[in-house]
Amino acid sequence: MRYMLMMNVPAGTGEYQIGGWAPEDFKAHIAFMHRYNKELKDAGEFVDGQGLTPPSQAKLVRAGKKGEPITDGPFAESKEFLAGFWLIDVDSPDRAYALAAKASAAPGPGGAPLNMAIEVRPVLAGPPPDV
In the chain, which residue ranges form alpha helices assigned H by DSSP? Predict the structure, then answer.
């Protein structure tokens, strides 16, 4: 089963708070993410994963009446935002939850686990066969 693990972090000003961390804390956090991704790849569970730019660079797009793009944003002030994601392929929901918990414990300032929220959602395999 495929799952998307979505890393949600507090927005504050709409910019990543990680930008204000001490360089050694930032390096430790990134090293954790590299190790985590390698473990997923080595286990054959990694499908994709990406970090995202802050909300200050986001636009909400809708189709106008003639199909033209209508944009709104950026939305710098929000309670939290999606900082990145992993797409994984695992045998069970429990495995997806375990991997999310591990990502949640990524180190922050001083090496303390961040315990950030990781949303876990099953990925639909496709439309029902009778559609």
Answer: 23-42, 93-104
